[in-house]
Amino acid sequence: MNVLNCEVYDRYSPGTPRLSGNHLEPRCWRERMMRLLFFSSYFSLILVVSLAQVVKPPPLMFNCSDPMGRVYTRQDSDIMLSCLWKTTNIFGYKPSPILSTEERSALPPRCNWYEDGIWFSDTSLWSGSKSIPLVTGSIITIKCATVFCSLPKCSHQRLTITVAQQDVKLFKISPSPPIYVYGLVQFGWCAKMKSTAWKYQFSSKKGEPGIVIPSNYHTEIEDEAYPPGLRGICSSYYNYQVNVSYTDPGHYIASLTNQNGPLVELSVILEVEPALLHVFSATSNQVSQTTDLRLTWILISLSSKVVAFQLTDINKVGAWNVTANSYAIKTDFCSPPLSAVGSGVARIHFLVDERIKEVLTGTFDLSKHIVGLTANKGLCNLRLNSNETQRNTYYCSTTSGLYYSYKENETGAGSSDHNIIHQDQSLTYLFQVKAIYFVRKMSGL
Prior knowledge:
- This protein has 445 residues and is mainly beta.
- Helices cover 7% and strands 46% of the residues.
């Protein structure tokens, strides 16, 4: 062991030790500086050697030897591999295809196997397999060394194998409750793993054949679309999405299963409510206070689900602009009409939830401010409110009677709006009357 002694001398009195004074000079500084320079050079040499080390990929290619086919996760890479967990996993290995002919002819690599950081085995073969009993979530690390890549000048990358179970989450993306018939309903699910052999089968309701989607046909789902608690999980999984609609109200169970893969049996329960669906609208701006308007309609059931409807302008007031729902079908006006009197406004076929057993007819009369509404022997007469600053709503039912409500019109004076609602079985009729008032001004000559 080297001991560095250092004494303090006065530079004006050589050879005389001094403990104090104005001219103290440690003669051991030179020796210290030489040792520091030597240590600095040594550390620089180590740093250069470390930076010059060559890092190569693993000399062996590993697989899970899974009869269900290779599985993948979104975290896989050249040095990270995923395997589906079983009670005993078999790992196969063989020479990497990137090795040269010279490297393949060398001695086989020596590989150290670790489970969760703890060594448990070595292998020294170019190819073979290893059977390992594992618990789910285990991480296998394999570090290999070869004669053509050895420390300190060269090293092979470590290979990490994650052994896990499949994890799948099924959820409804939109809409939020309530869900109505014919509305678009979006379902989604996310899965930790995928495999070419796996196929998902999604069924929107119990007992009906589902939609088959291969696990490789994944998509992206916006983070905001995930239900609470699933965003952190599903954002790192493979995502899938389907769109469906329900034509009947009721209680439904949407389900998801997996074909040719690990068992998946998931379901989502939802309630679908009936909706007030728009069938058609007819608008005319040629009606005035001096016009006597009479509209009649007839509805006939063609089958258990299909009905034919015709609206007629008896007095032929003028042109009508008609818009129909995309689910309704406008019929050919060259075909025989349901009623030969007046001018046909609309004639369409559309679907209903339940069969209408009788022929439904009705009449809407408007003369000045008096409205008469007749439907299947029911009668409702009312006088429209002539207040110019109000929006009025009238509900007329042959079973429930007449209800009336109003609120102030945001547009102010000059017009009044009237909504007359009539319900007959599963159909609802809405008649909207907008009265516009003109003020005449006179000026003297």
